[in-house]
Design the sequence.
């Protein structure tokens, strides 16, 4: 069964600190992995997208890694800001006809002052 | 990235009435649009996939007669929740892509409350 699991479920960090979110998946065949940021009451916004051959990608203070052998990904946030408070969703795309997306349940991050 | 706009952002309706949610791709032609539902603290659940000019493909367990999807043009898809009940209260999100090899972009979502 195609699944995407994220940890931790929720996380509280102090402003300015770094944090790392984890994503494990069992989606097969694998096409790509995306990290999204979803603010409360808003739609998801793409942070990074990685294909099988890519093992790291950065977008400002966000750095995503991918280990396709162990089927794990991480999202590292550097020098956190209050505006980073949101849910972070790992989404894996299966290389089927419509590239079906499998969503993780997300990590709820709260950055406190 | 490309812009996908949903309207309305919030709607409250009475039980038994119907509600229409619009999803528009503002700067690209969306051959495929997806409709999701998200309950509090849960992930997005795909409801249906629609291709322009074709009937929508619904996920298992989603009633096609209750959730009517129309994708009549390359820039607009609508989701109509018919005979809404309180249990239909949820956050509905659409996404759109131009073709199967491109990324899909999400709308800002619609909060539906049925009273």
Sequence:
């Amino acid at each position: 069964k195609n699944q995407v699991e994220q940890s931790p479920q929720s996380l509280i960090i102090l402003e300015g600190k770094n944090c790392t979110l984890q994503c494990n998946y069992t989606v097969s065949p694998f096409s790509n992995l995306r990290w999204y940021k979803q603010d409360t009451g808003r739609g998801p916004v793409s942070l990074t997208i990685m294909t099988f051959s890519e093992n790291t990608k950065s977008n400002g203070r966000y750095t995503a890694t991918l280990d396709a052998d162990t089927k794990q990904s991480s999202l590292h946030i550097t020098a956190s800001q209050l505006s980073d408070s949101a849910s972070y969703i790992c989404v894996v795309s299966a290389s089927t006809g419509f590239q079906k997306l499998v969503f993780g349940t997300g990590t709820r991050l709260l950055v406190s002052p | 990235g490309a812009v996908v706009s949903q309207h309305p952002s919030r709607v409250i309706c009475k039980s038994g009435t119907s509600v229409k949610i619009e999803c528009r791709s503002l700067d690209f032609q969306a051959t495929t649009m997806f409709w999701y539902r998200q309950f509090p603290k849960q992930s997005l659940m795909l409801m249906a996939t629609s291709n322009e000019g074709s009937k929508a493909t619904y996920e298992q367990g989603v009633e096609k007669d209750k959730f009517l999807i129309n994708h009549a043009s390359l820039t607009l898809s609508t989701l109509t929740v018919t005979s809404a009940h309180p249990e239909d209260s949820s956050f509905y999100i659409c996404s759109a892509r131009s073709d199967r090899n491109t990324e899909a972009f999400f709308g800002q979502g619609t909060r539906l409350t049925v009273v």
Observations:
- The CA atoms of residues 36 and 90 of chain B lie 10 Å apart.
- Chain B has a mean pLDDT of 92.
- The radius of gyration of chain B is 13 Å.
